[in-house]
C-alpha cells in the first residue's frame, strides 16, 4: 500500500522524535495520526503510544515506512517548501482582501448614515447658498463666478445624492450578527482559493470572474450566493493539473508566489490609502456616529438659519 505523503511526513517526524528519546513530544505527535488510523498499522501504532510501548511503536513505524514508501516517487523538498510558502501568502492575501472588503463596507454604511442624517440639511443649505449668490451676482456682475460655483455645487450634490441612495440600497445587509460572521468567514476561505493571483495560470480568467462575483455578493450581503461560491471554491475547481515535472512545478510555484506577493502589496497599499481618506478619519475618530451627526446637524442648522435670514432680507 502506498501511503499519503502527509502521513509519511508525520511518521518520519515521529520516528525522529523517538530516536531522540523525546517520548513526551512523540506521544503528542502520535495523537495527530487519528485521521489516518484506518490505514495499515496506524491504529496499532497509536495504541502502542497509549500503552507507552515506545520500542514496539518505533519498530512498527519503521515497518510501515519501509513498506509504504517502496513505490513512492521521491518528492523534491523544495516543492514542499514552495507550496507551504504559497499557502501562507495565499492566507495573508485572503485576510487582506477580507479586511479591505470589510472596510469598504463600513465606509459605505458610514456614507449611508451620513446621507440619511444630514442629506436634507445639506440640500437645503446648498439651495439657500445658491439663491444668495445668484442675487449677489445680479447686483454685482463681478460675483457671477461665485454664483456659478454655487450652482455647480448644488448640481453635484443632487447627482451624488441619487447615487448614494442607490448605493445605500445595494450595500444594506439584512443579516443577523451570526449570519454576518458566517459571511465574513466564508469570504475569507473562498477568496483564498479563487483569487486570480493565487490559482494556476490556466484558471486565472475563470477565477477572476468568480472573485468579482464573490466580492459583489459580500458587499451586498448576499449570504446564499457567498455560500454557493465558497462551496465551489472549496471543491478544488482551480486545482493545478497533475503530471508536470519537478522543474516545471517549481517554476510554476515561484511564478504564483511572485503574483501573490504583488497582489498582497497592492491590497495593502490600497488599504493604506483608504485609511488616509477623510471618510475613514472621521469614521474612526467618531465611533458614535449618531452623536457625531447630531453635532454636524446643529452646525448645519445654524448656517441654514443664517442663509435663510439673508434670503429673507433680500426679499424685503
What this model shows, in words?
With 316 residues, the chain is mostly helical. The chain folds into two domains: 5-72, no CATH class; 78-306, no CATH class. The chain is 79% helix and 0% strand. It is built from twelve helices and no strands. The longest helix has 63 residues, at 77-139. The radius of gyration is 31 Å and the shape is elongated. The N and C termini lie far apart (100 Å). The mean pLDDT is 89.
Distance between the termini: 100 Å
Which runs of at least 5 residues are low in confidence (pLDDT < 50)? none
Structural class: mainly alpha
Number of strands: 0
Strand content: under 5%
The biggest beta sheet reads:
none
Written as H for each helix and E for each strand, in order along the chain, the element string is: HHHHHHHHHHHH
Q: Please, what is the average pLDDT?
A: 89
Q: Helical percent range?
A: over 70%
Give the C-alpha Rg: 31 Å
Helices, by number, come to 12
Overall morphology: elongated
Domain module tally: 2
Short description:
The chain is mainly alpha-helical. It has helices spanning 5-20, 23-30, 42-50, 54-68, 77-139, 144-171, 177-194, 204-219, 223-234, 246-275, 278-285, 289-315.
Provide key terms for this protein.
mainly alpha; 2 domains; 79% helix; 0% strand; elongated
Amino acid at each position: 500500500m502506498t501511503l499519503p505523503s502527509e502521513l509519511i511526513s508525520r511518521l518520519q517526524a515521529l520516528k525522529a522524535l523517538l530516536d531522540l528519546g523525546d517520548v513526551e513530544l512523540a506521544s503528542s505527535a502520535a495523537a495527530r495520526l487519528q485521521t489516518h488510523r484506518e490505514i495499515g498499522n496506524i491504529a496499532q501504532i497509536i495504541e502502542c503510544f497509549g500503552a507507552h510501548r515506545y520500542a514496539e511503536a518505533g519498530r512498527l513505524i519503521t515497518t510501515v515506512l519501509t513498506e509504504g514508501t517502496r513505490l513512492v516517487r521521491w518528492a523534491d523538498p523544495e516543492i514542499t517548501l514552495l507550496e507551504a510558502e504559497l499557502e501562507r501568502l495565499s492566507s495573508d492575501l485572503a485576510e487582506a482582501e477580507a479586511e479591505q472588503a470589510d472596510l469598504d463596507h463600513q465606509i459605505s454604511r458610514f456614507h449611508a448614515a451620513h446621507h440619511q442624517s444630514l442629506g436634507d440639511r445639506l440640500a437645503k443649505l446648498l439651495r439657500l447658498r445658491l439663491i444668495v449668490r445668484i442675487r449677489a451676482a445680479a447686483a454685482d456682475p463681478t460675483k457671477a463666478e461665485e454664483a456659478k460655483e454655487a450652482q455647480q455645487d448644488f448640481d453635484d450634490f443632487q447627482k451624488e445624492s441619487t447615487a448614494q441612495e442607490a448605493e445605500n440600497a445595494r450595500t444594506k445587509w439584512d443579516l443577523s450578527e451570526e449570519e454576518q460572521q458566517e459571511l465574513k468567514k466564508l469570504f475569507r476561505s473562498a477568496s483564498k482559493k479563487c483569487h486570480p493571483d493565487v490559482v494556476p495560470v490556466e484558471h486565472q480568467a475563470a477565477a477572476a470572474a468568480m472573485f468579482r462575483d464573490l466580492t459583489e455578493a459580500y458587499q451586498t450581503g448576499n449570504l446564499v450566493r457567498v455560500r454557493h461560491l465558497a462551496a465551489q471554491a472549496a471543491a478544488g475547481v482551480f486545482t493545478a493539473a497533475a503530471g508536470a515535472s519537478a522543474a516545471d512545478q517549481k517554476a510554476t510555484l515561484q511564478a504564483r508566489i511572485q503574483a501573490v506577493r504583488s497582489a498582497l502589496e497592492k491590497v495593502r497599499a490600497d488599504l493604506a490609502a483608504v485609511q488616509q481618506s477623510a471618510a475613514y478619519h472621521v469614521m474612526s475618530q467618531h465611533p458614535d456616529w449618531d452623536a457625531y451627526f447630531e453635532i454636524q446637524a446643529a452646525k448645519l442648522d445654524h448656517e441654514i438659519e443664517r442663509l435663510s435670514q439673508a434670503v429673507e432680507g433680500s426679499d424685503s
